[in-house]
Structures are given as structure tokens and as C-alpha cells.
# Entry
Amino acid sequence: MRSTETIVLEYGSLMSGYGLQSRGPLRAASAGRVAFSNGERGLGRLANAGDHFAMVLDRVRDDVPLGARLLAADAAPTGEAEGLAIGVAPMALARFADHAGYSGGALQRLREEATAEGMALADYLWAAFERAGLDVRDFRTGLYRRIGYTSPHAVPHPIRLSDGRCVLTFLAPGFEGTGSDRIVAVRVRSGQTGLLSPTDAWRRQPSRAQLAYLVSCLLGGVHGIAVRDLLASLADDPGLAGAVRGAIVTEQRQELARFLAATNLPASTYFSAFGPASHALDRSGLDGFLRGCMGSADQ
# Structure
């Protein structure tokens, strides 16, 4: 990977071409699956428009950093939350920040500071995280003091992969704060600091936007990204399950083409990273769900 590129970890709607297409064409250098350690996800942050809950990723243990490892194309799912790792250039990185609700301009200022110190952005942020003693609150306070900006929606967060490389994701702040006492996290303002299952989120926000968002997340399963953790609760709401199933059946035919168009990845690069399409639905848990075998989501 060239030094101008950053690997971003996505765990929500941008796991799919359906979601990525809204960011416009990217020139991704790489893509693949990633598994998170000490992480659990669910719906929990009201999106900027306020018409649906967006995905959040929280630590299971507050005293252990969030970790991740890139997965080989033939790696079996382990039950951990999984997502998409995508290598992008600076202009595309700003789009990921804007999507999360963090200023792309602010992220650019951080990148300029990193460049001035001869460091890649993710390495620079990890070094700041280490100086903060791997304390999320202190790290965010330091970022705010450095550039005078933070967001109630999402804050950039560095992760050290199991192979030693540093990557970037965006986390929705909760009670640990945004980095500024004056800027209160959306999750705190709304009173929704925990994780909602898709079914619980639907009961609170039964909107067209919520359904479309959930489908965009689950279509990541077309690429073999495990989504069993998101499918499990749908057995409790047959109506929602049916609506989701119908939308996925409609959209999955175009998903691979959309993903390749959004990322500009050559097909050969894609299949080297994700493996044959014939195994993807089974690996992700979508196959059983689409066949109506709701119990397969827990297997």
C-alpha cells in the first residue's frame, strides 16, 4: 500500500456496493474482510437526518483496545463482528469521514499534521492514542485540542491490526465523550447509548430509510462478510424479515457489479480477496436467511 493511502474499516452500510455507491466512484487500492476483536456492533446512533438508526461499534471491555485482523479469502467465520477493510486515497477518505458525520476538512488537517511529522495518518493517530495511554476519552480530548473540532456523530479512531499495521475507523461516541464537554454525543442526547438489534431499531423507527439502511448493511454478506449478528433478531419479527428478504433478493443481483463500480477494483483483485461468489452467501449467513431458515443466523 502506498503511503498516501489509508485502510478504513467499515462495519455498517459501507460494507456493500449498495451503500458505497452513494459516496461516488472511489479508486480503492485494496479491499477485503476484517474481523474485530473486543468489538460488538448494533444500531444505536440516530443518523444525521434523524430518520433512521445507524450502525455503531462498541468495545466489549472498556479496558481493552478495539482490535482487528484481515481475513484470508478462505477464512471461516469465528462469530466475531466482521466488516470491510478498504484502502483509499485522501480524497476518498474525506468522503468516508463525511458519511460518518465527521468533517472531511478536519480529517484533512489531521492528515497534514501527520505528513508534517513524516507519518501516515493512521500511524499518527495510533501514536497519539498510545500517548493517551490507550484511553479513548483522553485521546479524543487531545484531538479536539489539536484542531479545535470534534463531532457528536463520529470520531476517527485508530486500530492496530494483528499484523502490526495501523488502520482507521470511525466510532460513534457515547458516555466516554466526543473530546469536548461542549459537544455532547448524539447517542447521549437521544438517550440511546446501548446497542439495538435490527428488530428493536425497527420498532422505534419503522421508516423506509431504516429498512433501506439495514438492507445496505446486510448486502455486505454478498461479499462473504459475516452478518449473522445482524440477522439473528429478525426471527422475532416475521414481517420485517420478509421485507428485508425481499429487498435483498432484489438488490443482490446487482450488488457485485455495484461494488466493483464503486471501488474500481479489478475483478481479479476482488476474487483474490473475497474468494468465489458461490461460497459468499453461505459464509455470511445470508444463504440460510434468504431460504427462510431463520435459525441459520445463529449457526
